[in-house]
Amino acid sequence: MLKFWKKKTTEPAPAESAAADERADLVADPASSAESGVATSEALAEAAAPEPQVPDIDAEVEASVVVEAAREAEHAPATPARRSWRERLSGSGFAKSLSALFVKNPRLDDDLLDELETALITADVGVDASTRLVEDLRKRMHKREFADADALLKALRSELVALLKPVETPLDVATASPFVILTVGINGVGKTTTIGKLARRYVDEGRNVILAAGDTFRAAAVEQLKTWGERNKVPVVSQGQDADSASVIFDALQAARSRGAQVLIADTAGRLHTQGGLMDELGKIGRVMKKLDPSAPHEVLMVIDGTTGQNAISQVRQFRETAGVTGLVVTKLDGTAKGGVMFALAREFGLPIRYVGLGETATDLRVFDAEAFVDGLLPAALGG
Ligand SMILES: Nc1nc2c(ncn2[C@@H]2O[C@H](COP(=O)(O)OP(=O)(O)O)[C@@H](O)[C@H]2O)c(=O)[nH]1
Ligand SMILES: [Mg+2]
């Protein structure tokens, strides 16, 4: 049975503003990014809220009214505060070892470059990329191209930006309607949380969004998505636990088309009884969608946990082959992530990095910006 679930209309939406986001950035505590099965303790409390009403046609209509109201009444858009990238990334292994390296005025010599190479490799940039980068800088240093460590830092910055620029390709959801995003990735990487954040972003942009609870493997996953739906006032299409994921997503696509929704975001399981089973399921979801819309899914968005380091590479390799990944989201870069995995991913696959997760709340998903990211990792200029 297709179930529409809607937000209870009595509760006022939290008014979050760009300014509030900035304040939150300043007090953000990276240590608080503990991982649990559900989004946050707030999510837990919300999940315990009364059961959603059994939906009917009226509920559908009401749900879209709520979406309209949300657009008008709610908050300023989730404007990314550029300076907050540094606040969020400063705890990363990359930022820490680089700032330790460039602390005080370091001597510009081969030892410094050796240490830089070690720091990059340790931060998960990858051996090949790190070695190439440092050898290039070494040649330039020997040609006396750098007057001081600041100049070296500037050169490093532009090399790092150059590595990431090719994958800085934002996702344009206006190219189809409904634009179907299928999210994939292993358990716990942040798929459901990312869907919640994306829903918030697209609603802020004035789009009609529908979510599909395609992770039917765990009951908690459906509840978690509903919680995000409630927060952002977007309908969530779900069936019971153990329902066929492809059929949930098929229903959701049908609903999205009949309601004129502009974006459909589908959640999927990160683990089934066997890994092969998961890949078969993802294949089936794709085939079933194409019965309604041969061009769907328009984006297969793979979510990667930024704290997993080099293991992310093998994950992407596997999902790319079997699920046809077209874009990446790297989450949890605010916590203990080393950060370097972004460069390794860019070099290895060249897949667009659409968004990065810099925290657990709705506005902590940023459109990937190579310069802001690199500046967040590197120490500020040494000179002053
Ligand atoms: N610190 C931090 N935590 C995140 C981020 N994205 C997701 N998480 C947390 O990671 C955990 C797993 O997320 P979830 O969405 O359930 O993962 P899923 O199993 O892939 O759906 C949750 O506790 C999330 O709050 C992020 O960008 N930063
Ligand atoms: Mg999930």
Structure characterization notes:
- The chain is α/β, with parallel strands linked by helices.
- The chain contains 15 helices and 9 strands.
- The protein has helices at 18-27, 41-47, 57-73, 84-89, 93-101, 110-122, 127-142, 149-164, 191-204, 219-232, 245-259, 275-292, 311-323, 341-349, 370-377; strands at 3-5, 179-184, 209-212, 236-238, 263-266, 299-305, 327-331, 353-357, 365-367.
- Strands 1-4-3-5-2-6-7-8-9 form a 9-stranded mixed beta sheet, with helices on both faces.
- Strand 8 (353-357) and strand 9 (365-367) form a beta hairpin.
- It is elongated and about 65 Å long.
- The protein starts with a strand and ends in a 7-residue tail after the last helix.
- Magnesium ion is lined by residues 191-192, 215, 221, 267.
